[in-house]
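ESCALATION

Customer reports they have been waiting on this structure for their group meeting. Please prioritize. Original submission:
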Amino acid sequence: MKPEELKKLIGYKAVDDLVVSGMKIGLGTGSTAIESVRRVGEKSQRGELKNLAIVATSFGTRLYIHLEIL
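Update from on-call: job pushed to the front of the queue and completed.
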């Protein structure tokens, strides 16, 4: 498996297994964290995750959250 595929798998699995509506979550920095942001965005847009309070650890992640989730 390519590193990019593994990062996506890990980022998605973390969100799928751990994040539920109403949670406060911290989203980190880096290529694996960006995959988690993407997954949160997908699930939020489908209405599967609601009312999340999200904290980003970097300006770059914060910008990405705005693009993917908001």
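Sent to customer with the following note: The chain has a mean pLDDT of 93.
Escalation resolved.
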